[in-house]
């Protein structure tokens, strides 16, 4: 198993970026490391791998055993814009049991904006501790993964077709968008199904709830 920072000349010193790499005996205090998606299930328990994901530097890899996400959405909220340094977020929703990190929690960094903490507290943002690629937003039962990390094979056309599986069903928080997206998908001013419906230009649709 590749360990983050193992080539550091001063590896006896604590390194803030790899504080999640803890001795085995502390697992007792951190039961979440025994649960999906961090529990490093053997392939026999996990089932056939449908997709593999990888961060920019390659230290963090994961597998998914479900072909199609439960849902996928674009989110234009300010939090997503800042966290991704992007005009909006593209997230695909999977159950935690659909996912398995190759090296468990090793090499991952956490940030809970609710608790303003880098400790593991749900809900949390999960990123690579080395290259800081956002990996997922983790809730109590679900993981919102970012499909850009999924490794797609084949020609450009084949990759485009595979990407369709992760195609979003709607836009959330379209009111705070950076750009108009005239793709005809349903758009919500805030959370989907519990805010106002907007058109592609952001105008409220009468009676559109
Ligand atoms: Zn990385
Ligand atoms: Zn958001």
UniProtKB/TrEMBL annotation:
Keywords: Lyase, Metal-binding, Zinc. GO terms for molecular function: carbon-sulfur lyase activity; metal ion binding. Pfam families: GFA. The keyword rRNA-binding does not apply. Residues 185-209 are annotated as: Disordered. Residues 51-175 form the CENP-V/GFA domain. Residues 194-209 have a biased composition (Basic and acidic residues). Belongs to the Gfa family. This is CENP-V/GFA domain-containing protein. The lineage of its organism: Eukaryota, Fungi, Dikarya, Ascomycota, Pezizomycotina.
């Amino acid at each position: 198993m590749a360990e983050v920072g193992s080539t550091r000349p001063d590896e006896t010193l604590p390194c803030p970026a790899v504080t999640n790499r803890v001795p085995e005996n502390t697992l007792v205090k951190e039961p979440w490391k025994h649960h999906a998606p961090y529990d490093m299930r053997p392939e026999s328990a996990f089932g056939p791998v449908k997709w593999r994901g990888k961060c920019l530097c390659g230290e963090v890899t994961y597998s998914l055993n479900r072909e199609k996400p439960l849902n996928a959405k674009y989110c234009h909220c300010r939090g997503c814009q800042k966290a991704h340094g992007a005009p909006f977020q593209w997230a695909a929703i999977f159950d935690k049991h659909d996912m398995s990190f190759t090296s468990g929690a090793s090499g991952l960094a956490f940030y809970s904006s609710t608790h303003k903490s880098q400790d593991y507290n749900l809900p949390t943002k999960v990123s690579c501790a080395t290259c800081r690629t956002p990996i997922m937003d983790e809730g109590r039962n679900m993981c919102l993964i970012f499909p850009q990390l999924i490794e797609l094979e084949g020609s450009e056309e084949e990759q485009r077709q595979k990407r369709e599986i992760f195609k979003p069903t709607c836009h959330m928080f379209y009111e705070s968008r950076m750009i108009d997206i005239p793709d005809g998908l349903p758009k919500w001013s805030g959370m989907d199904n519990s805010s106002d419906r907007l058109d592609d230009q952001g105008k409220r649709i009468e009676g559109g709830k």
